[in-house]
Amino acid sequence: MAQQTFISKVPKQYSFEFGYRNLFAQSNFVNQSTHGYGMLFDYAWQLSGLDGKKSPVYLSVPLGYTVLMPDNPESKSVHMLNYGWTVRHDLSHGHKWTPFVAYGLLLNNMRITDTEGSLFGHQTQFDLGVNMNTSGRLKYYAKIEYSYTSYPRFNESERIRLHYADLRIGVRF
């Protein structure tokens, strides 16, 4: 009879990342703020690959903040807070370089400088990246990210739809 192995505690990962964001497509958004930076803290639980024979999958709770700087003096800076759920799949295991893909569903709160109120929207994101596994506790990574965010009206005639591309670097521990 095969011996069962029980895990008393699910492995967790903490991640911190920082990087560049570009707003490359928009509809119904008159503010011209297309370049900025963002950071994100992430708390993840490993869901599969616990036996070490398969690639791990993680469920995480991210909390991020992004600032888009105005492109011209008439525009205002845009500040966004996002949080939600992300699922990350490592595509291999046991190698120094491990590619990963991730999918996230988040809520996004957008504020525009000198504008009263804020908007809550839905953000969907897709990540493609690579982990650099080290012998120590810290593991570094880099990723590119595509995000689509949709907001209700905010002094606009229709829903606001924004498409972003991010380039991020980070550390997991």
In this structure, how is the largest beta sheet organized?
8 strands, antiparallel, barrel
Q: Write down the secondary-structure element order.
A: EEEEEEEE
Overall number of strands = 8
Instruction: Please give the order of strands in the largest beta sheet.
Output: 1-2-3-4-5-6-7-8
Kindly list the characteristics that best describe this protein:
mainly beta; 173 residues; 0% helix; single chain; eight-stranded antiparallel β-barrel; elongated; 65% strand
Secondary structure topology:
Blueprint: E1 12-27, E2 35-48, E3 57-69, E4 78-90, E5 97-112, E6 119-132, E7 139-151, E8 160-172
Antiparallel strand pairs: 1-2, 1-8, 2-3, 3-4, 4-5, 5-6, 6-7, 7-8
Notes on the structure:
With 173 residues, the chain is mainly beta. Helices cover 0% and strands 65% of the residues. The chain has an eight-stranded antiparallel beta barrel with strand order 1-2-3-4-5-6-7-8. It starts with 11 loop residues before the first strand and ends with a strand.
Short synopsis of the structure:
This protein has 173 residues and is mainly beta.
